[in-house]
Design a protein that fits this description.
There is one protein chain. This protein is of the alpha/beta class. Helices cover about 40% and strands about 15% of the residues. The chain contains eight helices and ten strands. The strands form two sheets. It has an eight-stranded parallel beta barrel with strand order 1-2-3-4-7-8-9-10, surrounded by seven helices. Strands 5-6 form a two-stranded antiparallel sheet. Strand 5 and strand 6 form a beta hairpin. The longest helix has 21 residues. The protein is globular. The protein starts with a strand and ends with a helix.
């Protein structure tokens, strides 16, 4: 199967001032999926600029497009609750005609972590919450009535009819690198997401990054083996921009094909690139971006 190519559109433009056109353009360029980040705000330089909500943005994108898949990379428990998130996702899946993928992760220690006035969670608490969040969300999207009393999340006879358009629910793409996250990906994910190894982002090499992702896929396979699942049935997604290569793969079509080919050889099924944003870490030549979108998939088939 040919590697799929997708894009991330950061929600930084007003809908009537270029926002809508980005999503329509992504569909026209032939991307498999167009994702957006699900944050309340993000790192500098985006922290003090425009930043719109993920669910309304995806709803508008669903109305503006006809066939491209849409999703988040990624949603987290930092400011979400499974009950309200499930209701939003069912509506979004309905509006889109069944084109939504939920990227979901444990969250980090950035601005979202304290936006609601809470103290930052420790890595262990984030993992604990994630371990309760995902199974409950799974139930909320597949069962007609759900009650749950947990350590962090509760639900009291929550109805989520009529459920998702996609059956038995919309797909989860679980972002994970640690053993607990890998088990969640194996148990609940239709896909697994990686950005590479953050420990080597600043000082590592391209070769070390490829080997790190190879090791992560091995850990995912081990987690699948534990529950008797074939790891081949879990789609593997690489979100680019956070490996030691930084923006170099976007410098030319050939550079990108070389970069993507090395990850395809590991078993990565989908590569996600950011729509260019001038003056940021996602700056790229628009013409090169378009060439990658339209020509790279053929060369990677």
């Amino acid at each position: 199967m040919a590697m799929r190519l997708s894009t991330v559109i950061l929600p930084v433009r007003r809908w009537r001032e270029g926002g809508r056109e980005q999503w329509v353009r992504a569909e026209g360029l032939g991307f498999h999926t167009a994702y957006t980040y699900d944050h309340l705000s993000w790192r500098v330089p985006f922290r003090d600029g425009p930043w719109f909500g993920a669910v309304p943005t995806l709803t508008a994108a669903a109305a503006a497009t006809g066939h491209i898949r849409l999703g988040t990379l990624v949603t987290s428990p930092n400011f979400r609750h499974p009950v309200t998130l499930a209701k939003d996702l069912i509506a979004l899946d309905d509006v889109s005609g069944g084109r939504i993928t939920l990227g979901i992760g444990a969250g980090g220690s950035g601005f979202d972590a304290t936006a609601l006035g809470q103290e930052p969670w420790t890595p262990r608490e984030r993992a604990d919450r994630f371990g309760e969040f995902v199974p409950l969300l799974d139930r909320l999207l597949t069962e007609g009535s759900v009650s749950h009393r947990g350590t962090y999340y509760s639900a009291d006879e929550v109805r989520n009819l009529p459920g998702c358009v996609q059956g038995p629910r919309l797909p989860f793409a679980v972002a994970a690198t640690g053993p607990r996250g890998m088990r969640i990906a194996a148990g609940h994910g239709q896909a697994w997401v990686t950005t590479g190894d953050p420990k080597i982002f600043e000082t590592g090499t391209s070769e070390e990054s490829v080997e790190a992702v190879r090791g992560q896929i091995g850990k995912l396979a081990a987690a699948c083996d534990e529950i008797g699942r074939d790891v081949a049935g879990v789609e593997k997604i690489l979100l680019t921009g956070f490996t030691p290569d930084e923006g170099r793969p976007m410098e030319s079509l050939d550079a990108f094909v070389d970069f993507a080919g090395r990850y395809a050889a590991l078993g990565i099924d989908e590569i996600v690139i950011h729509a260019p944003i001038p003056g940021t870490i996602f700056a790229a030549d628009e013409k090169v971006f378009e060439r990658i979108a339209t020509e790279a998939p053929k060369q990677l088939s």
